[in-house]
Design goal:
- The protein is built from 16 helices and no strands.
- With 304 residues, the chain is mostly helical.
- Helix 5 packs antiparallel against helix 6 and helix 13 packs antiparallel against helix 14.
- The longest helix is centred in the middle third of the chain and has 19 residues.
- The relative contact order is 0.07.
Length: 304
């Protein structure tokens, strides 16, 4: 008789979901996260934190697939389990924004900033929503907002103990895993190395800039370091490296304009019209009036 196959644990299903997510197979990731959630809930383990991460990860998959309603539902469940989870807030905000529910998006972006004021996508989101709401509601736009919850100091203190500036830049498109985060000294060193890289870019010394950015990333991962290095690789005509760095940047921030644009530029140079157009369309969904992307899209559409 054939041996009965051992059923996968919830952690194995979660890891398989993470792998599918990273491979861009979001529908399969949803299925695996759903199985993991079911397995964990049936186990009787009252682990709210792990369940919250699973729901938040599944929400990220839904968001990538354009299923904003399900993303919002999963983020809300995640936030019920662990209130003020900033990744769930950012993902729900992005889904609200995509559905033109701008007031709710503003509230979630603003709440995330209360938790950590160093989240670039939350700052960008608040700025975008403010402009939109002023256009819609005029000077009294704030009066029409839903209540913005006050984040308890204990939540901020807990986050400060468990994470750092580098990890807080991991935003709404990234799935969550428990892993070691860089300490304050590593983050400080990474920032200094990135600044050295920026100085080389200004001088047009792209190879030296790449070295500094690479050293910076060995200390702490940060989305702008990846997009800066991608810019250097573009100048050096190292297009596969551009794509790789932009992939990493988009894992950290699924709505990163520079990553979409630079990856599109690389695909154009590699004559991959289909993927180039996909990236530019993704960018224009986020920022419809981006003239550089509009111009590049017109150029690429004329390619044979």
């Amino acid at each position: 008789m054939p041996r009965k196959r051992r059923s996968q644990s919830w952690t194995e299903l979660k890891q398989a979901g993470n792998e599918r997510f990273r491979a861009g197979q979001y529908g399969e990731a949803v299925t695996l996260y759903s199985q993991s959630i079911e397995r964990l809930e049936k186990s009787g383990q009252n682990n709210k934190e792990d369940l919250a991460i699973l729901y938040s990860n599944r929400a990220a998959s839904y968001l990538k697939d354009g299923n904003c309603n399900e993303c919002i539902k999963d983020c809300s469940v995640s936030l019920d389990l662990v209130p003020f989870g900033f990744k769930a807030l950012l993902r729900r905000a992005a889904a609200y924004e995509a559905m033109e529910r701008y007031r709710q998006a503003y509230v979630d972006y603003k709440t995330a900033l209360q938790i950590d004021c160093n989240i670039p996508s939350a700052h960008d989101g608040v700025n975008r929503m403010t402009k939109v709401l002023i256009d819609i509601d005029g000077p009294s736009w704030r009066e029409k907002l839903p209540p913005i919850p006050t984040v308890p100091m204990s939540v901020k203190e807990s986050l400060a103990q468990s994470t750092s500036l580098a990890s807080t830049s991991q935003q709404n498109g990234m799935i969550e895993n428990k892993k070691k985060v860089p300490g304050p000294e590593a983050v400080k060193k990474a920032k200094a190395l990135k600044e050295e890289g920026n100085a080389f870019v200004k001088k047009g010394e792209y190879k030296k800039a790449v070295e500094k950015y690479t050293q910076s990333l060995s200390q702490a991962t940060e989305v702008t370091t990846y997009t800066n290095r991608a810019l250097c690789y573009l100048s050096l005509k190292m297009y596969k490296e551009v794509i790789s760095d932009c992939d990493e940047a988009l894992k950290l921030d699924s709505a990163n304009i520079k990553a979409f644009y630079r990856r599109a530029q690389a695909y154009k140079e590699l004559k991959n019209k289909k993927l180039c157009v996909e990236d530019l369309n993704s960018l224009l969904k986020i920022e419809p009036n981006n003239t550089a992307a509009q111009k590049l899209l017109l150029e690429v559409q004329k390619m044979k």
